[in-house]
Recover the amino acids of this structure.
């Protein structure tokens, strides 16, 4: 949790126990939806409301500490912001994995060939994870 205190401090945000619990929960699960975050954090802080959770999530997103992970046919999930990567979504178990691959050249090729200037990208690839293949 110390690293999250440093991240919050670097962004001039207070290190409240709610924010630290939210970041710790998301870090533990990797990709998690708002209801699961609430259920997990509520066990430790039963006085925390959903409004407080939403407000803190939105603050952490606006300071680029968290990112929304929009997956097809699933609830929106959240993750700790990382370098650009691809999300692999298993069609059987719905597990989400991060796959780190350089995407800059892909975006440059798209921009060059289409004339479309990409400001942000979010790539999800659907398939079957190795656990579900067996």
């Amino acid at each position: 949790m110390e690293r999250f205190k440093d991240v919050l401090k670097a962004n001039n945000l207070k290190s409240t126990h709610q924010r630290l619990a939210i970041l710790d929960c998301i870090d533990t699960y990797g990709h998690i939806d708002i209801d699961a975050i609430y259920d997990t954090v509520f066990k430790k802080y039963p006085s925390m409301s959903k409004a407080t959770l939403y407000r803190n999530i939105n603050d952490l997103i606006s300071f680029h500490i968290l990112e929304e992970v929009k997956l097809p046919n699933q609830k929106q999930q959240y993750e700790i912001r990382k370098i650009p990567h691809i999300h692999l979504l298993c069609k059987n178990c719905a597990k989400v994995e991060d796959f780190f691959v350089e995407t800059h050249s892909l975006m440059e090729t798209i921009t060059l060939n289409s004339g479309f200037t990409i400001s942000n990208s979010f790539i999800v690839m659907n398939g079957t994870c190795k656990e579900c293949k067996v």
